[in-house]
Amino acid sequence: MRVGIYGGTFSPVHNGHVAAARAFMEQMWLDILYIIPTGVTPHKTMKGDATAADRLEMCRLAFEGMEGVIVSDLEMRREGKSYTVDTLRELYDPDGRLFLLMGTDMLLTLDKWREPEEIFRLCYPVYIRREEDGALDAAIVEKIKTYQEKYGKVVRRIVAPAIEISSTDVRAAVAEGFPIEGAVPSSVAAYIRDRGLYRNA
Question: Across the chain, what does the average pLDDT equal?
Answer without folding.
Answer: 91
